[in-house]
Amino acid sequence: MTETLANDGTFDFLNEIIGQIAPSKSLHVQILDVQLVHEEGNKYVGFLTAEIQLGDFFAEYKYPLDVVYDGTDILWEVDSDNASIEHFNFNNYGFN
C-alpha cells in the first residue's frame, strides 16, 4: 500500500515545490492506520491514514479504502481522488 500511495500521483502536486525549495529532500510515505468494517460477503470498506513527509514538513491524508478478502488473497483499492487532509505542519521547514 505504501508503495502504491508513493507512486500513484496523489502527491504529484508537491513535485514542483520539492524541486524549487528542497531538491535534495526525498518524499517518504508511511501508513499510520487502517480501519475497516465488514460490508457484506468478503467485502470490507473503511479508511487508510497515511503520512507524507518531506524534511520537516508532514501531512496526514485519509483515504477511502475498499478491500476484498477471500481467506487467502487480499485485493484493495485506495480512492486517491477523495482523500482528505487530516493534519499538516509547515513549522520549522527549511526554505533556505
Question: Can you describe what's shown?
Answer:
With 96 residues, this protein is α+β, with helices and mostly antiparallel strands. It has one domain: Nuclear Transport Factor 2, Chain: A. It contains two helices and five strands, in the order ααβββββ. Strands 1, 2, 3, 4 and 5 form a five-stranded antiparallel β-sheet that branches. A hairpin with a 2-residue loop joins strand 2 and strand 3. The N and C termini lie far apart (33 Å). The model has no long low-confidence stretch (mean pLDDT 78).
In terms of topology, how is this protein built?
Layout: H1 2-7, H2 13-21, E1 27-40, E2 43-54, E3 57-69, E4 74-78, E5 84-89
Antiparallel strand pairs: 1-2, 2-3, 3-4, 3-5
